[in-house]
Amino acid sequence: MRSLAIGLDLGGTQIRGALVDAEGTILSRRAEATPASAGAAAVVAALARVAQEVGAQARGAEIVGLGLSAPGPLDAEKGLALATPTIAGFVDFPLAAELSAATGLPVRLENDGIAAAIGEWRFGAARGLGNMVYATVSTGIGGGAVVDGRVLRGRMGMAAHIGHMTVVQGGERCVCGNAGCFEAYASGTAFLAKARRLATLDAGSALHAAGAALTGAAVFEAAAAGDDLARRLVDDEAEMLGLGFVNLLHLYSPQMIVVGGGMSHQFAALGPAIAAYVARNALPPFRDVPVVRAALGDNSGLVGAGAIAFEAAAPAQRRLSAAG
Amino acid sequence: MRSLAIGLDLGGTQIRGALVDAEGTILSRRAEATPASAGAAAVVAALARVAQEVGAQARGAEIVGLGLSAPGPLDAEKGLALATPTIAGFVDFPLAAELSAATGLPVRLENDGIAAAIGEWRFGAARGLGNMVYATVSTGIGGGAVVDGRVLRGRMGMAAHIGHMTVVQGGERCVCGNAGCFEAYASGTAFLAKARRLATLDAGSALHAAGAALTGAAVFEAAAAGDDLARRLVDDEAEMLGLGFVNLLHLYSPQMIVVGGGMSHQFAALGPAIAAYVARNALPPFRDVPVVRAALGDNSGLVGAGAIAFEAAAPAQRRLSAAG
Prior knowledge:
Oligomer: homodimer
Number of strands of chain A: 13
Largest interface: A-B, 54 and 54 residues
Radius of gyration of chain A: 20 Å
Number of helices of chain A: 10
Structural class of chain A: alpha/beta
Distance between the termini of chain A: 33 Å
CATH architecture of the largest domain in chain A: 2-Layer Sandwich
């Protein structure tokens, strides 16, 4: 019998689900809004509904399990949402167990950055490599790392919280409460806030008129058209991403860094400057490591979640990856 | 027949060697000065001499191999010293092969931070844990990480170059050429340079008289005696170490951080302030991870190198750790 898995990607605004095969192909998909303020039970019910809808397309194939990509911090080992700031009721909440009860399927929970890293590693830009880092640059910055052919999970499955490494001591306040985090400087949120702030101050810039309505895409368009402020904003963004990525090179020694999330849509504008920063500032043996755009776009986490369900269903492989 | 291994620790000033058993017990040891400016052949000859001297104490036991801890950057997979700044002639130098030819033993080369991490993980403070990070804070800052029960090596065995993560964008120039590295702020070298600079400017401090002859130990003594400048220097050092360690918590999710190197001799003064920084600034689920002093003192790298030789001699185990 053919084996399939369900991948779910729980975001602050949307729940997305897919029926996937072992090669990462999406056979069916559904989405609905996240009832983020309606409490944990409502979120579990919505997740189960999406799972059942995509599962109904299995046409007699066996569904081996369900992988759930969710925002951290969570204890992936125990299946707990510890304190998700964007979803009401997700405090020490047994998310995996509740979803398993609601669907009748084995559920494996994974931090969203790690799930997307698995997607890009198994089926995307870093396919076949033993060492890679995935960074999602969006509202915040998250990620996942594969080293020596294994996905890093660490204590409570919390490795690779890359958005919260301090890169500017005493710098900008971050949503996490700490100061100077990578996320507070290089996320899409940080980029847009800075662009709007500087645009209102610079009457000579093409960005000035939009003011508080300015979009990130408009900044990249104006930069391409030669606007000085916009070009400086794009250069600064590439520099901060380069700085964070150099840290990731030195810490994980990947063969490739894969960039996903909303900011990756602007990779054509950012990529060359990021590569130049790396070539200039990394220790010499790390300078030639490529930084590339995610190959699976918005689906990295979804197919990664499916791959996690397959992994959980293969006991021998699972034991190997949890060794020690 | 009893099995033993030789561990060698190559430093910029000293070569140390030990005959060790599989439990990390040191049975015999030797040291000699590193002929750092005499060329690669002289260094290999000195390493071989130390190895032969400790090996001569094996009394009929089998010597399974030799593990060599050396300063990076090096390609541990291929056994190459790539560009060691402190040793003349170590540029793309086939160190493992040359030492193997000189000793007749199989040689496994390892970055010194990773070797010391293995020592503390297998036989020291982090014994029995599946997740740990080791940081040596000395002339520079190096380290190694164990995640999910495995030592991280990464591309070319270069993972965990923790001293060269940028923590202060646009900050102090580092020996690596980049700016704002953790090492440029928190190493013993950085601590002492700052102490001497500020001591010459502060006639009211007990540190003032020593001026350029000031030692690190004297700063810690003066801090304990209540000198304002000395206390500020110690507080700043603990804060910078805490900042770097919070990054390591978020990136690797260890169950413990182990601190070695010269600065760890002052752990009684630094430890509480480091723990306070972590408790204040890490993401909540990481705040209770202990930061402790290395248990093996200066021998972490030496017994780690021995453990690496045993690992290399056990093909099944080696295959497992190189999987993927």
